[in-house]
Design brief:
- This protein is mainly alpha-helical and 91 residues long.
- Helices cover 62% and strands 4% of the residues.
- It has helices spanning 17-32, 39-62, 72-87, and strands at residues 11-12, 70-71.
- The protein has a two-stranded parallel sheet.
- α1 (17-32) packs across α2 (39-62).
- The longest helix has 24 residues, at 39-62.
- It is flat and about 45 Å long.
């Protein structure tokens, strides 16, 4: 769907409210097709972001796993390795 939305579940430390909000913003942008809404749609756009943020936070707080939490630094290194394999090294 949207490559900018990252997995936020089961990380140590847990996802922050800002990270959940950023994912909600990307989701609403993708659904609406607007990067920034017109004045006529601005209230609905921002309300949708807040609603999605609240629902996503509830979901993340409700999920249960027996797996060990993932380390953010390790996941960043893995993502960079995948990008180099896919796109080649930066020049």
């Amino acid at each position: 769907m949207c490559r900018n939305i990252k997995t936020l579940y089961n990380f140590d430390p847990p996802a922050t409210v800002e990270e959940v909000h950023a994912a909600a913003l990307q989701f609403v942008r993708k659904l609406s097709g607007f990067n920034t809404p017109s004045k006529a749609n601005e209230a609905a756009f921002h309300a949708a972001i807040e609603d999605v943020t609240a629902v996503a936070k509830t979901l993340l707080d409700s999920l249960v796993t027996n797996a060990e939490p993932r380390n953010r630094e390790v996941e960043i290194v893995r993502a960079r390795a995948r990008n180099i394999k896919r796109f080649g090294p930066k020049l």
